[in-house]
Amino acid sequence: MEHVHEHKLADGTVIVHEHASGEAGHAHVHNHTHTHTQTKAVLNRMSRLIGHLQSIQRMVEDGRDCSEVLIQLSAVNAAIRSVSKVILKDHLEHCVVDAVHDNDHETIEQLTKAIDQFIR
Known about the structure:
Blueprint: E1 2-8, E2 14-21, E3 28-33, H1 39-61, H2 66-101, H3 105-118
Antiparallel strand pairs: 1-2, 2-3
Helix pairs in contact: 1-2, 2-3
């Protein structure tokens, strides 16, 4: 048995939830479709990161000073952490709010695992 519903957030985002019952009707599979407010900003930052990494690769190929390479790698590392925080905040504001509303423990468990990986 499958149940589909949708709702609209204050920012106009439409969330569609599909709940498919498991074999015995106990387990539920949650397929969440979310539109995040920061997707364009995240993609722009990732494009810049990719370009920055490519320039660092050229620095190594050209035999540039290791200290210069390390400084640039440090800048990329900081940028990766920054974009990760944007994604995390967006996830908390949208997916996790919906998960709490829908009593979706799986999404919350997945967030906990992701945070554990993120803060290592």
